[in-house]
Design a protein that fits this description.
Strand content: 15-25%
Distance between the termini: 55 Å
Structural class: alpha/beta
Strand order of the largest sheet: 5-2-1-6-7-8
Number of helices: 21
Helix content: 40-55%
Number of strands: 15
Shape: globular
Radius of gyration: 25 Å
Length: about 500
């Protein structure tokens, strides 16, 4: 079987407009997909250069396939199964600074370059005051970026129209603000000229972004079957869900230069939003998508389910999740209700994706801090707005205590029991030690000590009127009758 190559795809030769730090599955299924669509629709004429940000691994597969690869989107859209297969042809080159620094840095002099995308993990946007300007490789990503931008500044004599737009997608708050802060720190550390700092401030744009798409990557167990369907071998084959969201916050409007929102028109569940404030969108994602996960997965697991899509076929669990979102979370959010309802509908489709087996135990990791970040704001917001407890979110906290009712602990993992079988509870050791001791106490004492643990919640939750008594009632029922019967008793 022939391997995918440029003779098969016949890609158009395009100017380099985007440099991307990171060649992994996520960016190739997210950014390149959108750019490829924009190119096809004549909205852009953009080639992408992929930069390998770490020394480990190889770009050999990209070379073998002339940088061509296939992306398959698989899931549900508008409650219908959806599969889209696309050959991505916008990647024009790859480069690894650790193998050929001169080739990498030469792109700083590329006249058509405009955007820099990065995904260097949450630990990538950091500042080290030990980094030296003369050291080209063993420095942080922001240090490399500062060096790259300085090379461009010099090459074009500080021309303002040669400034670049930074699009970091690392999963930290205000990623663009933090990236620029690091760059400015390096300018100061390395005592760089004032003109360069002025160019950074006035000619360059550092956006903060929020991204959302589940990318399942190379389908190792299905690859050969998919190759047979495609009619060629593709060792860069990438898979993802159809849903995609990219919120781009910028002081300067870059939407006309980067018309990805127009490229996605007609693509249900896919959207690019340009804004001067991404926080409401992050709040929407955290509170609806992540909050829904955290609010139902522990109860669903204790009821006997193992996966998210399995939970969605369990009527009482699905109803529990839907009422949590629509009756208790959405009323506490600030975006227009229609936007929130549309997003919630997409979340349900994503949870129902038959191509993704998302294990509930995997989602359960660090559930205490997750409940605080994802569910507690909705819980408290509902109480403040309606002066009563949100029943489902309150029950979710009782379910958390039931899930964390451990029997033994070894090597930093706590073991609890479901239907006679042990399961692993993973969290910080101090959290696990607390629950191992407290869950053996009478229900009322266990609940009181948990709710008053301000190191978990940042406040004493017994101050919420009625919360302690209700959670004692819920947890007592769960312990005596089981999760299934408890859900039926309160929510059927």
């Amino acid at each position: 079987m022939e391997q995918l190559n440029a003779k098969m795809t016949n890609p158009k030769k395009r100017p380099v407009v985007v440099m991307q730090y990171g060649e992994g599955n996520f960016l190739r299924a997210f950014v390149e997909y959108m750019i490829d669509l924009a190119n096809e629709k004549g909205l852009m004429d953009a080639g992408v250069v992929l930069v390998k940000p770490i020394p480990f691994g190889s770009l050999e597969r990209f070379d073998q396939q002339d940088n061509q690869y296939t992306l398959q989107l698989r899931g549900r859209v508008n409650k219908e199964e959806y599969v889209e297969t696309r050959q991505i042809t916008c990647v024009t080159d790859t480069t690894c600074p650790f193998d050929d620094y001169d080739k990498y840095i030469s792109y700083a002099k590329c006249d058509t370059l405009r955007f820099i995308v990065s995904n260097t993990t949450e630990a990538g946007i950091v500042y080290h005051d030990t980094d030296k300007f003369e050291e080209k490789l063993d420095v942080t990503y922001p240090a490399k970026l500062t060096q790259f931008l300085y090379e461009r500044y010099k090459a074009f004599d500080g021309a303002y129209d040669k400034g670049l737009v930074m699009l970091p997608v690392e999963l930290i708050d205000d990623n663009g603000i933090e990236l620029k802060k690091c760059v400015k720190n390096y300018i100061k550390l390395w005592d760089m000229e004032a003109g360069f700092e002025k160019w950074i401030d006035e000619a360059c744009v550092f956006t903060s972004t929020l991204v959302d798409r589940i990318v399942t990557g190379y389908p190792r167990n299905e690859a050969e079957k998919i190759w047979e369907e495609l009619g060629y071998k593709d060792e860069l084959l990438d898979t993802a869900e159809p849903f995609a969201l990219w919120v781009i916050e910028s002081e300067k409007d870059i939407s006309k230069e980067l018309p990805l929102d127009k490229a996605l028109e007609g693509k249900e569940g896919m959207n690019v939003i340009f804004t001067d404030n991404q926080k409401p969108y992050k709040q929407r994602k955290v509170r609806i998508l992540n909050g829904a996960h955290t609010s139902f997965v522990l109860a669903s697991y204790l009821k006997g389910n193992d996966y998210v899509n399995q939970s969605m076929n369990d009527d009482i669990v699905r109803d529990f999740m839907m009422k949590t979102i629509h009756e208790e979370v959405i009323p506490t959010l600030t975006l227009p209700k229609a936007d929130l309802e549309e997003f919630a509908d997409a979340v349900v489709d994503r949870f129902n994706n038959p191509f993704i087996q998302h294990a509930l135990l995997a989602i359960s990791l660090n559930s205490v801090s997750k409940w605080k970040a994802r569910c507690m704001p909705s819980f408290l917001g509902y109480v403040e707005k309606f002066n009563k407890l949100p029943e489902h979110l309150t029950f979710s906290l009782a379910a958390l205590m039931a899930f964390y009712s451990g029997k033994t602990m070894a090597d930093g993992v706590m073991y609890a029991v479901r239907d006679g079988q042990e399961y692993e509870v993973k969290d910080d050791v101090a959290v696990l030690e607390f629950f191992l001791a407290e869950s053996k106490k009478p229900v009322a004492e266990f609940v009181h000590n948990t709710l008053t643990n301000t190191s978990f919640w940042g406040q004493d939750l017994t101050a919420v009127a009625g919360a302690e008594a209700k959670i004692v009632e819920y947890l007592d029922t769960i312990q005596k009758e089981g999760m299934g019967k408890a859900l039926e008793k309160y929510f059927a």
